[in-house]
Each structure stands twice: as C-alpha cells, then as structure tokens.
Amino acid sequence: MAALRRILLLALLCLLVTSATADGKKKKEKGKGKGKKSVVTYDGRSLIINGSRELIFSGSIHYPRSPPEMWPEIIEKAKKGGLNLIQTYVFWNIHEPVQGQFNFEGNYDLIKFLKMIGEHGLWVSLRVGPYIEGEWNMGGFPYWLREVPDITFRSYNEPFVYHMQKYTERIVNMVKKEKLFADQGGPVIMAQIENEYNNIQLAYREAGEKYVKWAADMAVGLYDGIPWIMCKQEDAPEHVISTCNGRQCGDTFPGPNGPNKPSLWTENWTAQYRVFGDPPSQRSAEDLAFSVARFFARNGTLNNYYMYYGGTNYGRTSSSFVTTRYYDEAPLDEFGLLREPKWGHLRDLHRALRLSKKPLLWGTPSVQKINKDLEIITFENPKSNICAAFLTNNHTKAPATIQFRGVDYYLPQRSISILPDCKTVVYNTETVVAQHSARNFIPSKNGKTNKWEIFQENVPNMNDLPVKNKEPLELYSLTKDTSDYAWYCTSINFDRRDLPMRPDILPVLQIASLGHALAAFVNGIYIGFGHGNNIEKSFLFQKPISLKPGVNQISILAMTVGFPVILFVHSQHVPCRVFFDIDNKCDIFFRMKNSGAYMEKRFAGPRGITIQGLMSGTLDITMNNWGHQVGMAGEKMQLYTEEGSQKVKWGPTSSNGADGPLSWYKTYFDAPEGNDPVAINMNSMAKGMIWVNGKSIGRYWTSFLSPLGKPTQSEYHIPRAFLKPKNNLLVIFEETGGKPEKIEIQTVNRNIICSVITEYHPPLVKSWERKDNIFRAIVDPVKTGSHLSCPDNKVMNAIEFASFGDADGACGYFYHGKCNSPKALQVVEQYCLGKNECTIPIERQLLDDPSKDSCPEIAKTLVIQAECGHPEKKNN
Ligand SMILES: *[C@@H]1O[C@H](CO)[C@@H](O)[C@H](O)[C@H]1NC(C)=O
Ligand SMILES: *[C@@H]1O[C@H](CO)[C@@H](O)[C@H](O)[C@H]1NC(C)=O
Ligand SMILES: *[C@@H]1O[C@H](CO)[C@@H](O)[C@H](O)[C@H]1NC(C)=O
Ligand SMILES: *[C@H]1O[C@H](CO)[C@@H](O)[C@H](O)[C@H]1NC(C)=O
C-alpha cells in the first residue's frame, strides 16, 4: 500500500455540504423540526450558528484512541487552545465487529464523547463515513462486510448501499435520540457522509456518480436539521460545498463551488502519521501558523487540525504498519501533554484571529500586492469603523519591512502579522511568544516490575493443524482479522542422498511473502524473521536450514501488522467485486487516494516457498500441501487476563535473555508514583503485543529501526485508567526474543519549559481584547515579555539556564553566546522561582547593566530554561 501518506495528498478534501436549511429548498418537511428556526446555516462567508457568522477553529480527536477517563482533560486543553469545534470520525468496525453485534462501551462510547464535548461548550463535526481511512484498520469497514456476496465497496450496488444505510441510520438515530444535533439543542453542527470520494469516483464511473447522489440523499433523508458534508466532490451538486484538505490550503484551494458557500478547511495536518521504520515527523508551529493565518486571510472561516490529539492505536486497530502512537506531533502529544510551542503558538493565533473576527466576518476583503513576496490583505467595513489586516512576507529567507498606512512594519522571513485594528501587530506567525517544552521519560521508582515468568508457544507440525490446502491460503482471508498471526505448516521427506554432503554447505529456505512479516521454523527450531514495510509489503525471506533424512517439518508463522485502509479496485473499466478478493480474476489496481495509481498486492502471507541447494537443485514446496491455523494458543487462552494466565504453567526466564521466540512473559508492577502519564519502554524487546490488566496497549516493534538507527517508537502509553494502585498484571507476547528484565516502566512529563523572546517579539496576544467594535489593550503598559507557565499546578524549582544577549540552541540544549548579561539569571530567579507562572518584561534596564553592556548594538534575546516540579519536592 505504497505511499498512503497524507503528505502526498497536496490537494483537497473537498467537502460536500448538503444543507437542508441553507438552500431553502427542503425546509424541514420531516420530523420534529417543523416551524423551528435553523440553528446551523451558512452563507458565502461562513457557517452561521444561531444566527451569527462564526470563525471555527476545529481539531480532530478520535474517541477510540484514548480511554474516557482522559477525555475531559483533552477536551479542556483543546478548549484552552482556542478550539470551538471537535471533529471525530465514527468507527464502524469497532462498533459492529460481528454483523448485528454492537459495542459502544468504554473508549467506544461515542454518545458519551459527544455529550462531553457539548458539556465543555464546544461544537462537534461528526464524520460518519462509513469509510473513514484515518490510518484505521480497513479504513473503518468491518471484516464481515467483505464477505457479503456480490458487494462492491463505496459504489452503487444493492449489498453495499443496504449495509451502509443500515449502519448510518443506527448512528444517526443514536445521536438523534440523545438530542445531540444542534437543532435539537445539542453540539453536533455538521455531519459527514463518505470521505474524499472524488479520488476514486472515476473508477466506478456511472455507479460512482449514482452512489454519490444516493449517499447525499440518504444522509439528508435520515436527518435534515444540520448540514451534511461529504468530501472530495468536485462535481458537487448545488447543495454541497467543496472544501480543502492539505498543508497549504491558503494557496492551493481554488475556492468553494459557488458564491454562497463558505471556504472551509477540513483536514489540516499537524504533522505526518508514522509507520514502523520511519524517522520522527515534524511540522513546525511556525509553518502551521503561517498556513492557517494565510487561509483565514484568504476568506477561510473554518480550519481543522488533523490531528489536534492523536492518541494511541490500542489493540489491533491501526492500519498496515502504522505505529501504535498516533500523531504524537499534534498540539497535544500522545500522553495528552501540551506540545509547546505548537499548542501555545496556535492558541495565540486563534486569539489574534478572534480579535479580528468582526472585520473578518463583516468586512470587505481587499488585496494589495506589493511585490512578488509582500502582500497586504485588509478586511474593512468603514461604516462600522472596523478594520483588520494581514501583512504577509512570503520570502523564505529574507525579512522585509512593509509600509502600511504610514507605519513601517518589520516582517521576519515567511511570516504573516495580524493587525486586528489595522494598526497593532498582536501576532506574527514566525515569532513564537508561547513557551517551549521538552518531554522527559523518567524511570518509575514504584513501577518496577517483579520477577518475570515465561510460557512458550508450541511450534505446530502439519499434522496438528486443521485447515489443509494444496498451496498456502491467503493470509487476510485466513485470519479474517481475528488475529495478527497464522501458522502455515508442511512436511517433506528427504532421502539422505537429497541432502548436501558437506557440513559447511546448508540448504536455504526461501519464502516469497506478500507481507507483512514472518518467523520460520524447521523441525521446531527457529531459523529467522523477515518483514516488509509500509511502502513495499512483500519481501523475500532466505535463511540456511538444517535438514535431516526422513520427515522434516517446515512451520511458518505469518503475520499482518494491521489491514490496509481499503480503497478500491477496478479492472480496466469494470469495477471488481471487492478489493483483494482472492478469486477475482480482474487486474486489480488499488488506487491510493492521492494522485498516483499503484499496483497493489491484493494478498498477504507466504506465496512461493522453495528449498534451494539440495543435491537435486531447487525444490518448490509451494504446492506441497499445507496445514493452517489462525492465532496463537496464548491468544485463545487469553493469557493476558488474570483468569487466562492461570491456564498454563509459567516457568522462570533464562538469566541471559536467551528465551527465544514466541514467548509469553508475565509479571506484576505497582502504579507509578504521582499523576504524570505512564509509559513502558520496550527497547530491550523486538516485536509483539503488550497487555496491562487484560487491556491491550497495542503492538510494539522496536526491532524495526528507522534510518536514524533507532526504533520508530520506543515508549508505549499505559493509560493511568488501566492501572490499579498495586499488582498490575503485565503480559507481553514477544515474537522473536528479547530481554524482559530490561523493560522499564516510566512516567512522562514536560517539566522542562523554555522561553525565547527577542526585543522585537510582539507582546502576548492576551494583552488586548475586542468588545463589539472597540479594540483595546487590557494591560498597561503593553510590553513584550517572557511568559513561563508550569503544567499541572507545578512550580519552577530551578532556573536551569538564563541569558539576556545572544544565546542559541533549543529547549534542553541552550548555550551562551558572546554577549551575556551577568544579571539575567538572578532577575529570572527573582521573578520565577517557586512560582507556577511568571512574566519577565524584556527591558535592558531590568535585565542588564547598561553601563557595562559590551554589545549594546545587537538586538537581544531573553532565553530561559526552567524545571517544574511539585512544590513539596523542594522541602525534602
Ligand atoms: C444556540 O443557542 C441556544 C440558546 O442560547 C443554545 O442553548 C444552543 O446551545 C446554541 N446552539 C449552538 C449549536 O451553539
Ligand atoms: C475573498 O472574497 C472576496 C469577496 O467576496 C473575493 O473577491 C476574493 O476573490 C476572495 N479571495 C479568495 C482568495 O478567494
Ligand atoms: C509563497 O512561496 C511559496 C514557496 O516558498 C510558493 O509555493 C507560494 O506559491 C508562494 N505564495 C504566494 C502567494 O506567493
Ligand atoms: C492545515 O494544517 C496544516 C498543517 O497541519 C497547516 O499548515 C495549515 O495551516 C492548516 N490549515 C488550516 C486552515 O488549518
């Protein structure tokens, strides 16, 4: 599933907004809405909620990716970050894993999540899908749907539209019953049906066109009190709005599909999701802020951060090769901690845009292009005397000065300044006023693991296995997504004369696998592990093996690492039945949702197996008759639960870490001290799964190194909600071998906070407010300052670094330059030590001794690094 990477998808999720209310055509003929005023409509400028145009700052947060105990804190932090809308998908395959059997418990409790968002005063955008992508296993489709006869996904055909409608209806009715739609007084202001469909519509031809119309009508038919959105619909009917997804919608988006449609940006990527084998992903706060500011400067009124909080892919929920940690680079990191300065810089941006709300929504835009790189955009309404301006320098290297209404404004390279009154710069996208922070993983004192015990899986022989077939069965169809694992076993009889005579020459077992990984055994002895990657899932496994005269057993443990997010299939012009259908004779192309078409392997698992270097040459054993078995014995016994773990006899682990493959490990640990989030460091292990008190923490894969030579993900999040104070059962299934004694339980904090403020930074955007048409300062005097604030009511226990001058580096790695004020540290300590937060004005008088200043001519920077902790800590 090559390049299923959002980053390649420069363009546009187009949203198709079918509004039952905006076009005036369907005025609530249905249901209880009769006579009631529409709560959500739109015009050419923005969504209109309760009669008022709105700027919408939206963030994606997916309820299954965190336990409900974390939701209040995450929603609250999103709100403090300036969001007024939370966007979530609805995940069909977790809600209906078996046809007709529904699950809305725990972190699958959609209604609880929606209610909680409403209780925090935020709105909801509900992306029902049912196809959702989202780096989620099978893009949200349940496995059983694949086995419905004659079904073609995401196209107009009886079986598909029947099941899609049935499910959509269930979700809509649940939301309706709880009165969660906006016109019922609830928080849900819009809902989405389908997802980026234009990417695949062409392949389905007429059936695709018919499907789009059907889906829109079906959705509106189910509920018509709020706008329905649908993505990627360039030929959207009149009652839909096309919107943008991507990194730079301010410049790439051609605009909505009509003058009465607002400009909405529904998927704004805060970084890049990771697959195993990737180096870390980055997207700077400055770059993000630039593109959002640009979008609002170019008439945008809704931006969604994808993701605002990514969370964790627990269990087997991630799609192929996607890491267990999801969008850790988002403004809230995997542990729900504020990723600074991203979180704070965007909070400040939202404040600056809100200060400009009146002119933005009721003013008239005008653009003044000064040269290739410099541009002034104003939104003005002379009658009510409101005016806001965006000053843009698009040059990536050189700063510039813009003259605007008689005043010179300095603009750093590639930056936008926001002036809510056309006079005062309250924000610049490149000058980060918000603090920085660094994340620390600290070994827990209380959380030490007890003695480890081991139980080893049996390596089966062909005779032990139930499902027989001449050639190896396809892996996806075999597991039906009930396990990552399936055994493939065969046996071969060799005569002594078949085998090499010299002891230094061994035959070689070669397995051509279509993905994703495998461990191979000969006569019960482990011979090695092989795997593909997200871009090339297929791989060739080759290892020397020892064979004996007589019967030899070849046992292959084949694995998937998440199913692909299924897209679609077409053959020439005829849509094929289903993606990766094993019986399908069509030439199947899996077209990714980006522009390219990729020849995708339909299958996973071993396909061609040979033994090379026999006296008679190469022996092809692909058709040798195979026995199959899905899942590990330990999974069936649920060894990861307290009850299941009693079913086998556990033994001591070997002291030298040589326990070998297919090992179940078990131990107990106490909850770590304090309230900080908890992680488990798995660097001493290789690949497998983790459970705590019977709950899955997800897959780990620390033996898959990135190009930087490090595991893509070393630490795995254990939610505090999964823990008891004492004796938490920790079970690990390790596929190839590791050293469990070195596994470390850790606490996670962002106790190192930093601030880097120059003399030309704008003051905190909090220094101003707008009431009606009046924009004014609310502090006197308004000054540039360094502002530091410890998380979770902690206080600054130490100032680790302070410099007023030309220090350089990054949070955690600062170093002094040539001009440092000898006073700076002392001043910072005076202002901040022992405090939860502090603000130090950037003043030479205060921070330096001007008579002794050795470099008075340079612009100075105040650089601070402080360590936060609990106040009681200081007393010990
Ligand atoms: C609309 O206004 C009413 C009354 O103030 C309020 O209860 C409701 O929550 C608002 N709806 C939305 C979607 O904000
Ligand atoms: C913004 O809106 C104005 C007036 O509605 C229009 O003239 C202008 O072209 C729009 N700008 C962009 C970038 O779409
Ligand atoms: C700004 O610069 C980038 C390249 O750095 C370019 O792709 C983009 O089109 C420019 N935008 C404008 C409005 O000039
Ligand atoms: C969308 O997200 C990208 C990166 O995540 C960001 O640069 C851009 O500004 C965002 N745009 C909007 C409108 O949110």
UniProtKB/TrEMBL annotation:
Report the catalytic activity. Answer: Hydrolysis of terminal non-reducing beta-D-galactose residues in beta-D-galactosides
The family this protein is said to belong to: Belongs to the glycosyl hydrolase 35 family.
What is one term from the GO cellular component aspect held by the record? apoplast
The record's section on Pfam families has: BetaGal_gal-bd, GHD, Glyco_hydro_35, SUEL_Lectin
Q: Where in the cell is it found?
A: Secreted, Extracellular space, Apoplast
Q: Which residues form the SUEL-type lectin domain?
A: 787-869
User: Which CDD domains does UniProt cross-reference here?
Assistant: Gal_Rha_Lectin_BGal
Q: Which InterPro entries match?
A: BetaGal_gal-bd, Galactose-bd-like_sf, GH, GHD, Gly_Hdrlase_35_cat, Glyco_hydro_35_CS, Glycoside_Hdrlase_35, Lectin_gal-bd_dom
- Which GO MF terms does the UniProt record name? beta-galactosidase activity; carbohydrate binding
Q: Is rRNA-binding a UniProt keyword of this protein? A: no
Q: What is its EC number?
A: 3.2.1.23
Name the keywords, alphabetized. Answer: Apoplast, Glycoprotein, Glycosidase, Hydrolase, Secreted, Signal
Q: Write down what this protein is called.
A: Beta-galactosidase
Broad EC category: hydrolase
Where does the record locate the signal sequence feature?
1-22
Report TM segments: none
